[in-house]
Specification:
- The protein has 268 residues and is α+β, with helices and mostly antiparallel strands.
- The chain folds into two domains: 5-127, Aminopeptidase; 155-267, Gcn5-related N-acetyltransferase (GNAT) (Aminopeptidase, 3-Layer(aba) Sandwich).
- It has seven helices and ten strands.
- The chain has helices spanning 14-24, 32-38, 94-109, 121-124, 161-175, 189-193, 249-259; strands at residues 5-8, 47-52, 55-68, 74-85, 113-115, 155-159, 206-212, 215-225, 237-246, 265-267.
- The strands form two sheets. A five-stranded mixed sheet has the order 1-2-3-4-5.
- The relative contact order is 0.13.
Length: 268
């Protein structure tokens, strides 16, 4: 018999399990002020925890959403958005027990697909997950201007944090949820996965919006990372693009022209 239990968490355990997840991913748990803003998105529903003597030692989190498939239909999906086991409880079957319970819960809820971003790809094949898509990281060294002779009928503006929080959810829904592979972002997703990044303790990201002839039609989320050091004090910063969505080729080109034109940047 194991010396831990696996069950759905309660709302009273939300803060404890979120802090556990962040620490298991080598991050810093949110302050009380930040938790007051994002905690409402970390509800008990869809979250399986492992507990020893009433103390959380593992968490497997998910939320219900939809996935756009070829042809334009959207199917019910479980988005696995956080899995972690406390470092002193690994290699003792905790993860396997949580994943087993979670997958059975997905079937009970009627999800036809479950998806996650694998932080370590070798882990999740043990539970039936397979590769659905691949990613690539591109580095563009400056100067790398687009051709100025190409006329782009639009403009790009930077949003304040408050404006971004108010504007981007509806813009995302309007421009980019019909492509196959896109995942709908429910209301509870935004405070914890978007708003978080706009604050200093979440990365201090900026948001740029492209406006075309028919209104706002694209956006980019980015932040700047210093690269200079004692040994290389004059090295320019890196601009990291967190996400970029565009409804038209013109919006895509306009956003890239903006990102590649930001001063004091060595690489995008």
């Amino acid at each position: 018999m194991s010396d831990y239990v696996v069950r759905q968490i309660t709302d009273a355990e939300s803060r404890e399990t979120f802090d556990l997840l962040v620490r298991s991913l080598h991050g810093n748990p949110p302050s009380d002020e930040r938790w007051a803003k994002v905690g409402g998105s970390w509800t008990a529903d869809g979250r399986t925890g492992a507990f020893h003597d009433g103390e959380a030692i593992g968490i497997a989190s998910s939320f219900a959403t939809t996935l756009t498939v070829p042809g334009g239909s959207a199917v019910p999906m479980a988005a696995v958005d956080g899995v972690g086991v406390r470092a002193d409880w690994t290699r003792r079957g905790v993860l396997t027990a949580m994943m087993d319970r979670q997958l059975h819960d997905f079937v009970r809820r009627g999800h036809v697909v479950a998806a996650l971003h694998a932080s370590e790809a070798l882990i999740y094949g043990r539970y039936g997950y397979g590769v659905a898509t691949r990613m690539a990281t591109l580095q563009i060294k400056k100067p790398a201007p687009l051709r100025e002779s190409v006329d782009l009928p639009g403009r790009v503006r930077l949003l304040t944090t408050d404006d971004a929080i108010a504007t981007i959810p509806s813009l995302y829904q309007r421009i980019d949820t019909h492509r196959p592979g896109l995942i709908a972002r429910p209301e509870l997703w935004w405070p914890i996965a978007f708003d978080w990044h706009l604050h200093p303790d979440g990365g201090n990201h900026r948001v740029a919006v492209h406006t075309g002839p028919n209104g706002d039609d694209g956006f980019a989320v980015f932040h700047v990372v210093p690269q200079n050091s004692y040994l290389d004090p004059e090295r320019g910063a890196a601009l990291e693009v967190h996400e970029l969505h565009a409804a038209t080729p013109e919006a895509l080109a306009g956003l890239w022209r903006f990102l590649l034109s930001v001063d004091l940047i060595e690489v995008v």
